[in-house]
Amino acid sequence: MEKLLPTTQKTSHRIDILSKLTWQLRNSDLKKALSYGLQHIALIRKSGNPQALAQANNYVGIIYRNLGDYSQAMRYHYKALTLAQQHQVIDQKAYCYNNIGDLLGRQGNLLDARKNIQRAIDLFVQLKNDRGEAYGYLRLGEVLQQEGKYDEALTAFFKALDLRKKMKAAKADLSAPLQRIGVLYGVQHKYKEAMLYLGKALRQDVVNQDIRGMCSVQNDMSAIYLQQNKTQEVIRQATDTWQHASEIMAKPIMYRTARLLQQAYEKQKNYVKAYYYQQQYVSTLEDFLNEQRGNQLDALRYSHQLEKQQVELDLKDKDIQLLQQAQKEHRLRQSLVYALFAAIVLLGGLITALVRGNLRKKKANHLLQNRNQEIAEKNYEIVVQNKELHAQQEEIRAQHDSIELQNRHITQSIQAAKTIQEAILPQEERIKQMFEQYFVIYRPRDVVSGDFYWAGKVGNTRILGAIDCTGHGVPGAFMSMIGFALLNEIIKTKKVTNPGEVLTRLRLEVKKALSQEETRNKDGMDAGLIAVEDQSDGKVKVAFAGAKRPLWYMTKDCSRLQVVEGSRVSIGLTYQDKRVIETKTYLFDKGTQLYLSSDGFADQNNVARRKFGTKRLLELIYMIGKYPLYKQKKVLDNDLDEFMRDTEQRDDILLMGVKL
Q1: 98 and 134 in contact (C-beta within 8 Å)?
Q2: Which residues are in coiled coils (predicted)?
Q3: Which residues, given as ranges, of the chain have pLDDT below 50?
Q4: Is the separation of the CB atoms in 463 and 497 below 8 Å?
């Protein structure tokens, strides 16, 4: 079509070619698409066919949306809507409402977005336009998903799928609704259904030979494998995606693929490959952002250039009109000269006509000078704007480079801190040697954690503790390292096994380590500690002490989870507090289940900002208490994931359970 365009003279054919080129290039070459789109609008105006202008403006609005310029996109869509309403082009009116709804949704105005999209769907139904209706339901599903209305969003996506299956005029694109259904099932943790529909979308893209679409779907599948901790599947799938995406240089897909590979290798503790793919992620993302900024700047420059050309064209039209007027006056003068030979009495009329003609010419020349001045001023403004845009681009690039460098250094440092923390803090293998059945739910809010657990043996005494340090992230991690080192010294070196005495000494040592008497530093920790000894009569002796943390236990015949409150004393937080940390001792039957935790699980909020709550947590543990502890962990993990869906983790989380 591009080769055909320069040789095509007929206006209607040129308009058709420009329309097709604009639409086909709207996602791949935004500069060309904008060029053809604006030429398309100019040619339609010249041809005097205002009914076709609505679609042309809609196309340009979509291109500006893809450039990220939502303000310009909205301007063209509203211009298209006005034209569609004036000339009763109902299908374009519907597409306008749909495109406006899409833009509002991208900017977070979900209520107005839904209203506009529903208007579009109603019009498409009235027109019996299945293609437009399917497109509307896809957009409606996206907005409903943003609102967290997952069931309604699924209904909309399935409606779009059914409509596209019914379409007979052209080959229906089923991949888009299938992919959206699969992704939404993944958000709901319905992994079996998610993989089923993503697999169907992938097969559709293979049939259509859509490499970009295949890579996008494979990334969605890899993300679901990652949620399930199937890291080997992530690596297998994402490595294949990386190869295909690199061949077509699909940067948005490449940086997402690199991020998935980085996260998978991190989970496998393969930090060399994780670091490699983190570098690929940052590099590809930076290239993509630079290309986007370049595209936006090129498109803006072209828009200014075309505006300048339009002004020049307008002036040429004005020159033609002036020339035609001059020719007309010349013919009039000839007529007057001929008439002079016939009648001298017309001489005065001829002179009058000539004077008027000269006046008109002077007036036209004056108008032309004014227009030339306006063009010069506009050209100057464009030059100034281009300089400002270039300066802004340089500033943004410098800021971006600086931020990326800082982020890289910080990420590397924190990853190194995580490696050190994981190497020093106890592994689950130590707890496994002490208890036949156990579980540990350990979720740092950031890369490193302020929560930690301590496990070890002194003689025949098994000691287990859950400690919650002030803060999270790097500050919390420093406190956890201090606490772990002090507990090692108190229990392993000094052989102190009484939990109350251990926590009392820990309290004193934290004060010394942080010089709290002098600095008035208020950092510290809450803790729960148990010491377990088997008795000769088959019973198990459990000594417990808590610093603002309880012990929960469940015997075989109890009607609810039992709570042993810790002492109302923090470690390291108060200076003159003389209260002691009390040890409480119990004799339990074998099979009793004990639980220690930080406050992170109970304090986690959902999307409505309501906490999970201690009461709900105790009831859940009691309800699943009959299961083996490994199964209890799965239920607790799944319940927490479901509760905190679509929101962020607010604190470090630690919850442990053991069976005597």
Answers
A1: no
A2: none
A3: 169-171, 310-311, 313-315, 319-320
A4: yes
Residue labelled with tokens 């398309």: 40
Rounded CA-CA distance 393/294 in Å is 9
Distance CA 17, CA 8 (A): 9
For 223-273, what is each residue's pLDDT tens digit?
A: 999 999 999 998 999 898 888 878 767 677 888 898 899 899 888 888 778
- CA 511, CA 517: separation in Å to the nearest integer? 7
Domain count, the chain: 1
Instruction: Tell me if 595 is assigned to some domain.
Output: yes
Sign of the Cα torsion 433, 439, 444, 450 reads negative
pLDDT tens, residue by residue, 558-581: 889 999 999 999 887 665 667 789
Residue 576 within a domain: yes
Domain presence at residue 163 = no
Confirm if 529 and 499 have CB atoms less than 8 A apart: yes
Q: CA 36 to CA 303: how far, in whole Å?
A: 11
What's the pLDDT at 354? Answer: 60
The whole domain housing 626 covers 426-659
For CA atoms 88, 90, 95, 96, give the dihedral sign: positive
pLDDT of residue 348: 56
Q: Which residues of 517-635 form beta strands (DSSP E)?
A: 525-534, 540-547, 551-554, 562-564, 584-588, 593-597
DSSP-derived secondary structure for 311-356: HHHHHHHHHHHHHHHHHHHHHHHHHHHHHHHH-GGGHHHHHHHHHH
Q: How far apart (Å, rounded) are the C-alpha atoms in residues 581 and 41? A: 80
CA atoms within 13 A on the CB side of 71: 0
Total residue length of the chain: 660
Computed on alpha carbons and rounded to an integer, the radius of gyration of the chain in Å comes to 37
Distance CA 219, CA 221 (A): 5
Q: What are phi and psi of 330, to 5 degrees?
A: -65, -45
Burial of 368 (0-12, 13-18, 19+ CB in 10 A): middle
Tokens matching residue 528:
């729960």
Looking at residue 62, its pLDDT comes to: 87
Instruction: Collapse the DSSP code of 557 into the 3-class scheme (helix H, G, I; strand E, B; otherwise coil) and give the result.
Output: coil
Nearest to 620 by CA among 608, 634, 609: 634
111-141 in b/e burial notation, b at 16+ Cβ within 10 A?
Answer: eebbebbbbbbebbeeeebbbbbbbbbbbbb
Three-class SS string for 162-200?
A: HHHHHCCCCCCCCHHHHHHHHHHHHHCCCHHHHHHHHHH
CATH code (residue 579): 3.60.40.10
Q: How many CB atoms neighbour CB 276 within 10 A? A: 15
- Quick one: tokens of 118? 């529903």
Is residue 650, in this structure, part of any structural domain at all?
A: yes
Can you give the pLDDT at residue 590? 94
Residue 642 to residues 190, 236, 645: CA-CA distances in angstroms? 11, 27, 5
